[in-house]
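Lecture 7, part 2: worked example. A protein chain together with 2-acetamido-2-deoxy-beta-D-glucopyranose.
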Amino acid sequence: MEGIVAMFFMLGISLSHLVTGNAQDYFDVGKFGAVGDGNTDDSPVLGKILAPNADARGKFKSENCWLCFQRVVGLIVEGPGQIDGNGATWWTKVPISERPTALHFQLCNDLRLRGLTHLNSQRNHIGIHNCSGVAISDLHIIAPSDSPNTDGINIALSTTLVISNTFIGTGDDCIAISGGTSNINITSVTCGPGHGISIGSLGEDGTSQNVDQVHVTGCTFNQTMNGARIKTIPGGTGFARDISFEWITLIASGNPIVIDQHYCNGRDHYCQDQEKAIAVSDVTFSGFRGTSAAIEAINLDCSKQGCRGITVDNINITSSFGKNLRVVCNNAYGTTASTVPAVSCLLS
Ligand SMILES: *[C@@H]1O[C@H](CO)[C@@H](O)[C@H](O)[C@H]1NC(C)=O
Ligand SMILES: *[C@@H]1O[C@H](CO)[C@@H](O)[C@H](O)[C@H]1NC(C)=O
Ligand SMILES: *[C@@H]1O[C@H](CO)[C@@H](O)[C@H](O)[C@H]1NC(C)=O
Ligand SMILES: *[C@@H]1O[C@H](CO)[C@@H](O)[C@H](O)[C@H]1NC(C)=O
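Predicted complex, written out as structure tokens:
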């Protein structure tokens, strides 16, 4: 937090067991009765941190985050309390490259994040970057469905992380898992509105990125644009493997099951195969129940190199608008059993 912890923390948000370098400091933030009204750091205690509006954007340019924690081991950030990014003024006025992540953790091992409400972030609500041993639970993350790039939780370069019992309704990915991540468990997360839980996108500009051991269980997609999704950009190298989505409830979810290896990161609709592709393998979609708001309930669109070890079983997805649903595969190798709609396009 780089020496400015006190000014950001209010009653209702407790920050404990802060260890920086060799020194160990305890902050009882109940003693700091400050409040963000967007301008001053000190006014009546509200249990709330409010970001300044977009006119203050120059302050965040170098950091790319509003509340930034770096190199803190054993940090606990606990609610109740609210972190309000005051995003409405940013979304319309400020280009994405100048909008900060609201709460960002970098190189913070053994991090606990629990019980807070996160509102209307300028860009992503929470970033977890190069951290290991992270437990996130009991959060409420809320922004309008049309707010741009407001991912709920964005994870990169991190290992051994659990997210549980959390509600995320925003304008972009509920949880986005980027390259350099492994051993991520996500349980009992309700998403919607938003774009669902995404692995990727991976491989932009030919980069090498790996994601493995991601297990999503007991989650709900409520009127999300996508559900369980893996997206890779042609030309990248590396892998996305040992990934499962199990016991998923769908409430009029768009595109409930998607592997998209022709993703373009918004630049186009369908990027063509290249000589290289991220290798997608050992991916399980199992125990999906509920309704799809899109005709294509399952779309396994792999690169020409193919996806291996895809398992689709124990699925019952019906249409939320009374139509027959479709399943589409492209170069997807694997096995299937007991699915509605039937998956007859997997290659063996
Ligand atoms: C992550 O942190 C470790 C430990 O400081 C460092 O060695 C490594 O280079 C970092 N990785 C990235 C990709 O930033
Ligand atoms: C995730 O769940 C798997 C299977 O239950 C378990 O082996 C693994 O240790 C868990 N990972 C974390 C980070 O809790
Ligand atoms: C789904 O979302 C709608 C609209 O936000 C909400 O009214 C409903 O309670 C949610 N359903 C569940 C089961 O969470
Ligand atoms: C699938 O779900 C629908 C709607 O709940 C139900 O009517 C149908 O019997 C289920 N089909 C199977 C094979 O379980």
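The pocket of 2-acetamido-2-deoxy-beta-D-glucopyranose (ligand 1) is lined by residues 107, 130, 157, 180 (CB under 6 Å). The domain at 173-348 is CATH 2.160.20.10 (Pectate Lyase C-like). Keep this in mind for problem set question 3.
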